[in-house]
Amino acid sequence: MMTPTVLCKPVAVMGDKPITAGLYAIGRIFLSVPALTPVLGLVLLLGVLPNTSFASDSPEECSRTSNYSIYLSGIYTGSMNRTETWRGNTAVVTSKSEASILGIGTQYRQRTELSWSSTTDEWLTDNFHQKVTGFRSRDMQVTFENNGHESWVDLDGEVETYVSEDIPLRDVDTLLIQIREYLLRGRKQFALIRQASDDIEAYQFYVQDTLTTSIEPWGELTLIPVEQTGAEDVTYYFAPSMDYQLIKARYHGIILRGLIELDSYTSSCEPILAH
Questions:
Q1: Does residue 40 form part of some domain?
Q2: Transmembrane segments in this chain: where (predicted)?
Q3: Residue 143 pLDDT grade (very low, low, confident, very high; cuts 50, 70, 90)
């Protein structure tokens, strides 16, 4: 087993209170209350947000944990924690976030089970359970069938079904993991569909040229920007030198703009490889 890798950013201070690390959920990022203005939508899209695909056939369990800070128009509004627990070609992703915007407090929790499909060569969501308290409270349980092309959604006791003919439906966590899989394969553009609480949302993704920037505490990093268009416009930034972790993501709102930034990352997994 690998020795856990721990990377973290110095704790910032606002007034006399420390700002702790965390992500706010896509899905996320994003990774997840789409209606709580842009930031919650960003959290859902990221789902946060995440960490990445894991291609080892080893049954040994390992985990990746990321903490992000969430900002709305430059103001710190909350944090999100996301942990992926991997065993071979399956994973359980748990995400939790807390945020306060204009005095409205929201807590988000999600548990996702996903697995690799040898039939279609992609990561698919098996099921997920999402619970939101505070603004836009909900309890949502979803299962997927037919290689992700059909979903069964129980939203606060009311059941709906959805079908996608061409592209599998995914939750925000698996969506992010599949994005990374495509990056590892060298794909430059692709389409994915997210299962929302009362609809399905289609996105197009475009991989941009790499850029180099300095980010504390890691110093100079080469990042791969991935632009998302569709239901929400978001730009994700992945760092190949950090095992293709999501370093930050920007939500491009018309009035309000959301941002999540990685503050710390811990991993006991082998480096990510294309499946």
A1: no
A2: 21-49
A3: very high
Tell me the two tokens of residue 135. 């603004």
Task: Identify the CA nearest to 138 among candidates 196, 187, 181.
Answer: 196
The span from the CA of 9 to the CA of 47, in Å, is 21
Taking residues 61-89, report their average pLDDT. 93
Give domain status of residue 99, yes or no. Answer: yes
Q: Is residue 158 domain-resident? A: yes
Question: Which range of residues forms the domain containing residue 185?
Answer: 61-267
Distance of CA 14 to the CA centre of its chain: 26
The number of angstroms, rounded, from the C-alpha of 227 to the middle of its chain's C-alpha atoms is 14
Per-residue tokens: 7 = 């990377």
Per-residue H/E/C for 62-121: EEEEEEEEEEECCEEEEEEEEEEEEECCEEEEEEEEEEEECCEEEEEEEEEEEEEECCCC
What is the pLDDT, as a whole number, of residue 264? 92
**Which pLDDT score, from 0 to 100, does residue 255 have?**
61
